[in-house]
Amino acid sequence: MPRACSPGHSVSEAAGEEFLVSARIDRVHALDTAEVRALKGRSLGPTAWLAVQQDRVDAFARAVEDWHWAHNEVERAARGPFGGTIGHAHLTLSLVPHLFASLLGFAAGEDAMFYGYNRVRFPAPVPVGSSIRLRADIVDVTDLGGGEQLTVDLLVESDGADRPACAAQGLFRHYHVAAPD
């Protein structure tokens, strides 16, 4: 069974021995195939809040060449429908793998690779200056022969909002291959 750790710690492994390291309180670790498969039906989260500040939004705009006034023109956006600048929908979506990694860990050196989305919706904007967090429900785990695919219902919440910023179903693939030293 995947292990929930004591407050403020997570399980890590080195030379076949487990030891505690500082981490999020609710992070779950699945250290072998049986533990990964046992994640099906499990709810994870929420993550810690992550601030969405104007510098992050501007950096994202530079990276993807999306300079819409609702994201990057503070004075104009203040007169717009949201009362200020908002984060790009794809910025919110791009933070999902990072947030998901804070909820679920694997054996030392292993990770889940983002594979794609089955569906994505953005019911509410993310105002600049607010924070987001992620909740995840693992709805399926499929054996890939040498790894597993996790189908995960994802909900990105924005503080102070009554609707989610993003609702999606993501696919993550986990392979039992440790990263090189």
How does the SSE layout of this entry go?
Layout lengths: L2 E2 L4 E6 L2 E6 L5 E3 L2 H5 L5 E2 L5 E2 L2 H11 L4 H4 L1 H5 L10 H6 L1 H6 L2 E3 L5 E10 L9 E13 L3 E12 L7 E10 L6
Parallel strand pairs: 4-7
Antiparallel strand pairs: 1-4, 2-3, 5-9, 6-9, 8-11, 9-10, 10-11
Helix content: 10-25%
Strand % is: 35-45%
Bulk shape: elongated
Q: What is the mean predicted local confidence, pLDDT?
A: 87
CA radius of gyration: 18 Å
Order of SSEs: EEEEHEEHHHHHEEEEE
Sheet with the most strands, sense and barrel status = 6 strands, antiparallel
What is the CATH-assigned architecture? Roll
pLDDT < 50 runs, ≥5 residues = 1-25
CATH superfamily: Hotdog Thioesterase
**CATH level 1 name:** Alpha Beta
How widely separated are the two ends?
28 Å
Number of strands: 11
Q: What is the CATH topology assignment?
A: Thiol Ester Dehydrase, Chain A
Number of helices: 6
Structural class: alpha+beta
- Domain module count: 1
Description:
- By secondary structure, the chain is of the alpha+beta class.
- It has a single domain (33-175), classed as Thiol Ester Dehydrase, Chain A (Roll).
- 20% of the residues lie in helices and 38% in strands.
- The protein is built from 6 helices and 11 strands.
- The chain has helices at residues 33-37, 54-64, 69-72, 74-78, 89-94, 96-101, and strands at residues 3-4, 9-14, 17-22, 28-30, 43-44, 50-51, 104-106, 112-121, 131-143, 147-158, 166-175.
- Strands 5, 6, 8, 9, 10 and 11 form a 6-stranded antiparallel sheet that branches.
- The longest helix has 11 residues, at 54-64.
- The model is unreliable at 1-25 (pLDDT under 50).
